[in-house]
Every structure is written in structure tokens, then in C-alpha cells.
Specification:
With 334 residues, the protein is α/β, with parallel strands linked by helices. It has one domain. The protein has helices at residues 18-28, 35-53, 64-68, 74-85, 92-109, 129-133, 152-175, 180-206, 218-222, 224-233, 238-245, 248-251, 254-268, 278-288, 299-307, 310-313, 324-333; strands at residues 3-5, 12-16, 57-58, 89-90, 113-115, 123-124, 136-138, 141-143, 294-296, 317-319. Strands 3-2-9-10 form a four-stranded parallel β-sheet, with helices on both faces.
């Protein structure tokens, strides 16, 4: 059994779901919201702002910008998120690749302790020329202006496709009476099957197992396990990589563990419907959960994480906005 040793960054990492950003935006923009929500948003923004200014916390972002890009207050939402994150964005593929390569090294050494490390969470940071000289002042908040951001039409199409895909798969699994454990097994084994089919496709196209693909191209991402293996051992051993992908070591990689467990949970929970953004939330949480000190997400996702005891495993406190008093108590301790 591989023991996972949690890591907590300094400054502490706090993850904010899009609904938290939206509530604070509505408050600042004086949108018509109920008194309780308005009060919570004002207190939460004040406390987070003070902790960010004191370099005690940071609220890095992943996919939140993709979710509010189509709203009429996207600029204000962006201002809040860029301020609280200091413009620091986490990149899923970098963390996933770093975790895999380090776990692969542990597998080769036959070790049993996997330490979460700061190097696993590199920040992607890109500014305009103007923003490099000085941060802009928007709505009284000094923020970093990024060049990153998705195309609304493309993001909407992707979100709709993922929503329909998950909804259809859940219906099929329900008809087949698949259990959580059965679906979890399918999710965990999908990586080895994807890698195997990728190797066969590359062999057919190039006549050999090619690995020198352009960085982050589709083939590079699909063949990354072999690329990482080759860098660690100097050998291009497809069978050895398949053995790793089917081992307990691979299943213990934090981002794989969390992604597959949360995915299996929402796909087999009869009391929960698939909603837009589920795929993005699961992907984001699978990355940030092992490193964050505190996560504020929606009630359903909080329930799923706690039922799977992922918060205990990775020593992370999970809340929804309904836990406002507990959130403020935790923030006051920081």
C-alpha cells in the first residue's frame, strides 16, 4: 500500500468555486441578492482580501474563468479572481505529468511513501506588456491582467458535449445496474487502455513506437507515460509501462485517485443528476484538493468528497457556502 504524505503550501492555498466568485461579484455590483447572501459575500471578500494582502493565502485558479465568461459581469468576476489569485493559474497537465513521473520513480524503486511536493503545482503566469509595468486599478482592486482566457463559443460547445456525454453514460450505467466499485474499476483501467490503443495507432501510422512528438500535442499527451518511462530508465518499454498503468502505484497517483473516485461517485449516485460544469469541477478538484488547505465548493460536490473521505485522506477542509460560520472560523485561524 502506498502512503500519501499531504503537503500544505505557504502561503496557504484556498480554492474558490465559481459560485463563490459570482456571489462576491453580485455584492460589489449591487445586484439584487438576498440579505444573507449579501452579508456572507461582503464578509468573505473582506477576509480573503486581508489574507491575500498579508501573503497568508493565495486563491489560484483553473477553470473558473471558463464558467463565467458568458455572463454580463465577467469583467468584475475576473477582477476579483485575478486579485485573489495574484494572476496565478494552475495547469492541469503539468501537475498530472509531474505526479505520474514521480510515482513512476517510486514504482521503480519499490518505495511505499509518496510525498506531495510544492514542485507539483507550478503556476502559469502570463501578462500583457502594460501589466508587466504595473498592475491596473480596477474597481479599487490592484490586479494582474492576463492574456489567458477561452473562446466563449468553443467553451460552450465543450461544456455541452461533456454534459451530454456524462448524462448519457450515467443513464447507461443505471440501466446496467453498475455499482460504484465496478465503475471505479472501469475509470482506473481506462488509462492503460487509452495508452495501449495509442501505441497501436502510432505503430500503424509511423511504423514504429515514436515518442518525439511536439510538446503537449495530442500524441505527446497520449504517449506521456512512455516518454516519462524513457526519461527515467533510458528504455522504450511499452509492456513495462502497461504494467505500471495497471498497478496500485498508478491508481495511487493523487490526481488519478481523486478524479476516478469523484467521477464514479457522480455517475452512480441515484440521488444526484449530472449538471453543467461537473466535468470541469471534478478535473479541478482532482488537481487542487491534495494541496489546498481549504476548499469552498458546492453542496453536492462537498458531500461527494466527504462520503469518499478524500478530505481526510489529503488533509483538506471542505466547505460549501452553507457552512459560512465554519469558513470564517477557519479563515480567522490563518
Amino acid at each position: 500500500m502506498i502512503e500519501i504524505i499531504p503537503f500544505h503550501n505557504n502561503p496557504k492555498i484556498i480554492w474558490l468555486d465559481t459560485n463563490v466568485i459570482n456571489d462576491m461579484t453580485d455584492f460589489i455590483m449591487c445586484k439584487p441578492i438576498d440579505k444573507i447572501k449579501k452579508y456572507r459575500a461582503s464578509i468573505l471578500l473582506e477576509k480573503l482580501q486581508a489574507l491575500v494582502n498579508a501573503d497568508k493565502i493565495i486563491c489560484p485558479f483553473l477553470k473558473q474563468r471558463d464558467e463565467y465568461i458568458s455572463t454580463d459581469v465577467s469583467e468584475m468576476s475576473d477582477t476579483i479572481l485575478m486579485y485573489l489569485s495574484k494572476g496565478k493559474q494552475l495547469k492541469t497537465y503539468l501537475t498530472e505529468n509531474l505526479q505520474m513521473k514521480r510515482m513512476m520513480k517510486l514504482y521503480l524503486e519499490k518505495g511505499n511513501r509518496f510525498n506531495m511536493e510544492k514542485q507539483d503545482i507550478p503556476y502559469y503566469y502570463e501578462e500583457s506588456e502594460e501589466a508587466r509595468k504595473k498592475s491596473k486599478e480596477r474597481y479599487g482592486l490592484s490586479v494582474t491582467v492576463l492574456l489567458t482566457g477561452g473562446n466563449k463559443e468553443i467553451l460552450d460547445r465543450e461544456n455541452e458535449y461533456l454534459f451530454n456525454f456524462l448524462k448519457k453514460r450515467k443513464e447507461e450505467l443505471s440501466q446496467q445496474n453498475k455499482t460504484f466499485d465496478e465503475v471505479l474499476c472501469e475509470e482506473l483501467s481506462s488509462s492503460s487502455m487509452l495508452f495501449d490503443s495509442g501505441v497501436k495507432k502510432i505503430k500503424k501510422e509511423f511504423g514504429y513506437v515514436k515518442t518525439n512528438f511536439e510538446y503537449l500535442s495530442a500524441y505527446y499527451c497520449r504517449m506521456y507515460p512512455l516518454i516519462a518511462w524513457q526519461k527515467l530508465t533510458g528504455k522504450k518499454d511499452v509492456d513495462a509501462v502497461l504494467n505500471f498503468l495497471e498497478s496500485d502505484y498508478f491508481f495511487a497517483i493523487p490526481c488519478e485517485d481523486i478524479f476516478c473516485q469523484l467521477g464514479a461517485k457522480i455517475l452512480t449516485d441515484p440521488s444526484r443528476n449530472i449538471v453543467h460544469g461537473d466535468c470541469r469541477d471534478v478535473r479541478s478538484l482532482s488537481l487542487i484538493l491534495p494541496y489546498a488547505s481549504l476548499i469552498i465548493t458546492d453542496k453536492a460536490m462537498k458531500g461527494a468528497i466527504q462520503q469518499l473521505k478524500l478530505d481526510k485522506k489529503y488533509d483538506t477542509k471542505i466547505f460549501s457556502l452553507n457552512d459560512f460560520d465554519n469558513i470564517t472560523k477557519e479563515l480567522d485561524k490563518m
